[in-house]
């Protein structure tokens, strides 16, 4: 691949362009808003000038509702050797293209499983896709050259290719992406009118649950409008769990012993099913989840503190598998939670204590 055309210079399109440019591909940028394309070009994502002729690959990075029309225009204009889109739903756009009578041999639907709460070209980064799954949905009609171009794109973006059926993909992302977005937003919505005293008690748990609720509503309306059926099915199952949980909680408040025992059993059931589901989430580097131990350390909010604690852990020969920071409300300090292999805990605690760190059990 020597040349590419990226149509749509939001977060994903600009990030694709930045990754390709950094690896020697000449990228041309196009957007319905010329200012966005100029902004992407200004940060090094390519040029907003039209290509002289046909490019090797056209990447359509527009909202799902506009994918088919944008692709159809590009295909009919013969703008590239191969065409793909990066929308978060796959079945609908392909069916729309078929209805428009397009030749789909040169098209492949894809979806990089990466994103941020921010949007727009200035949110783009060349490393957005590194190590992340990138779904490819080829069919029997897909030309081998287009599949190879898509695999080359994934490689240049340093992502991991995953081949799936388009409709299976849409059901999967409804479960692991679209429904969590709505549930996160619903929980965060409870905070909007909450008493200020309650909000001040927010800790890491509520921050984790509501992190993605900061996402752009217009963008998510586009995504959910393109995949409403599968999301509704999963939310219906979640709603059934909520109804059962509400009944169990009411029973816990009952004066009847049998009711309380039944309520406790219902709550325990949903919590244990949650444990089982959480244990299936892939761990580090996509491997099976590993049970790490947590070493909590008091850390000041000053420049260089994170570098110092990581360096001290490194000198102790301990690899930090994961890390979280829990900020203390109203204080210039917080707890850093270092996740390590269980056998590494004693040595890490001893080393950090010797270097003056305050370990919190």
UniProtKB/TrEMBL annotation:
All copies of the Prephenate/arogenate dehydrogenase domain together span 2-282
Per the record, the domain of life is Bacteria
* E.C. designation(s): 1.3.1.12
**Coiled-coil stretches noted in the UniProt entry, renumbered to this chain:** none
User: Under which main EC class is this enzyme filed?
Assistant: oxidoreductase
Pathway it works in: Amino-acid biosynthesis; L-tyrosine biosynthesis; (4-hydroxyphenyl)pyruvate from prephenate (NAD(+) route): step 1/1
> Where does the record place the ACT domain?
294-361
Q: Does the keyword Heme apply?
A: no
Cite a single Pfam family from the UniProt record: PDH_N
Q: Which reaction does it catalyse?
A: prephenate + NAD(+) = 3-(4-hydroxyphenyl)pyruvate + CO2 + NADH
Q: Keyword annotations for this protein?
A: Amino-acid biosynthesis, Aromatic amino acid biosynthesis, NAD, Oxidoreductase, Tyrosine biosynthesis
**Similarity-based family:** Belongs to the prephenate/arogenate dehydrogenase family.
According to UniProt, the name of this protein is: Prephenate dehydrogenase
Q: Which organism is it from?
A: Streptomyces blastmyceticus
């Amino acid at each position: 691949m020597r040349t590419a055309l990226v149509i749509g210079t939001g977060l994903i399109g600009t990030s694709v362009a930045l990754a390709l440019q950094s690896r020697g591909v000449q990228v041309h940028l196009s957007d319905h808003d010329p200012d966005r394309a100029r902004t992407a070009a200004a940060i090094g994502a390519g040029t907003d000038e039209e290509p002289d002729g046909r490019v090797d690959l056209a990447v359509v990075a527009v909202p799902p509702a506009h994918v088919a029309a944008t692709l159809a225009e590009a295909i009919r204009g013969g703008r590239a050797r191969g065409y793909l889109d990066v929308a978060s739903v796959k079945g609908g756009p392909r069916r729309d293209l078929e209805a428009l009578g397009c030749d789909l041999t040169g098209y492949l639907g894809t979806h990089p499983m990466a994103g941020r709460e921010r949007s727009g070209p200035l949110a783009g980064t060349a490393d957005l896709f590194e190590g992340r799954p990138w779904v490819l949905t080829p069919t029997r009609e897909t030309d081998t050259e287009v599949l190879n171009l898509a695999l080359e794109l994934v490689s240049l973006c340093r992502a991991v290719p995953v081949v799936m059926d388009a409709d299976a993909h849409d059901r999967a992302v409804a479960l692991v992406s679209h429904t969590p977005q709505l549930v996160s937003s619903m929980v965060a919505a409870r905070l909007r009118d909450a008493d200020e005293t309650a909000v001040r008690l927010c800790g890491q748990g509520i921050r984790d649950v509501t992190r993605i609720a900061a996402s752009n509503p217009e963008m998510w309306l586009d995504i959910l409008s393109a995949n409403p059926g599968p999301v509704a099915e999963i939310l219906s199952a979640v709603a059934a769990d909520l109804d059962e949980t509400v009944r169990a909680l009411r029973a816990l408040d009952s004066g009847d012993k049998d009711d309380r025992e039944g309520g406790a059993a219902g709550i325990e059931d949903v919590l244990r099913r949650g444990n089982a589901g959480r244990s299936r989430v892939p761990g580090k580097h996509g491997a099976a989840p590993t049970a790490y131990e947590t070493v909590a350390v008091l850390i000041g909010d000053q420049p260089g503190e994170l570098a110092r604690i990581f360096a001290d852990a490194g000198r102790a020969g301990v690899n930090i598998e994961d890390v979280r920071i829990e900020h203390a409300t109203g204080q210039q300090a917080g707890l850093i939670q270092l996740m390590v292999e269980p056998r590494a805990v004693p040595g890490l605690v001893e080393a950090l204590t010797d270097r003056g760190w305050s370990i919190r059990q």
